[in-house]
């Protein structure tokens, strides 16, 4: 008997939707990681931390980075160490809490982030943003917000 793939119709919709999220996250993350590493010697984990830092007008408490990214606190700490050693980020004592530090991008960090973000967008365009319309993107954003809001559940 010949082996064949299951069709979407043979899989419960919730299972297919979950598999799709896992597949898309894995494939797109690997694609972005390869592009950023090749063009900028920048792993995607570093880019994620830089994205949060670049999005904030003020220095970000290290604990907030740990809660915002998909990385563990120890991974965030190692990434910030690496960014700092490359002159891309700085740590400063918090003015509000003497026990904590705040992290910000340096001018070189902002410059590299802008270049890397352009690379990320170009890398994703043919396989993501060019394929989806505004309604698709808004639906995905809504799904993401609902899942993230209940992440502790």
From TrEMBL:
Domain named HTH marR-type: residues: 1-149
SMART domains assigned to the protein according to its UniProt record, in alphabetical order: HTH_MARR
GO molecular function: DNA-binding transcription factor activity
PROSITE patterns per the UniProt record, alphabetical: HTH_MARR_2
Record Pfam families: MarR_2
Classification via SUPFAM superfamilies: Winged helix' DNA-binding domain (SSF46785)
Gene3D superfamilies, alphabetized: Winged helix-like DNA-binding domain superfamily/Winged helix DNA-binding domain
Domain of life of the native organism: Bacteria
Coiled coil segments of this chain: none
Listed name of the protein: HTH marR-type domain-containing protein
């Amino acid at each position: 008997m010949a082996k064949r793939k299951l069709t979407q119709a043979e899989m419960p919709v919730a299972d297919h939707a979950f598999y799709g999220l896992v597949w898309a996250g894995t494939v797109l993350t690997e694609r972005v990681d390869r592009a950023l590493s090749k063009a900028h010697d920048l792993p995607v984990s570093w880019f994620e931390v830089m994205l949060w830092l670049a999005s904030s007008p003020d220095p970000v408490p290290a604990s907030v980075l740990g809660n915002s990214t998909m990385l563990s606190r120890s991974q965030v700490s190692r990434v910030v160490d690496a960014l700092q050693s490359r002159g891309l980020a700085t740590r400063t004592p918090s003015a509000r809490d003497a026990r904590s530090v705040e992290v910000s991008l340096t001018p070189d960090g902002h410059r590299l982030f802008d270049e890397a973000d352009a690379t990320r967008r170009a890398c994703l365009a043919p396989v993501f943003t060019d394929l989806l319309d505004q309604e698709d993107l808004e639906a995905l954003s809504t799904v993401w917000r609902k899942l993230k809001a209940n992440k502790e559940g």
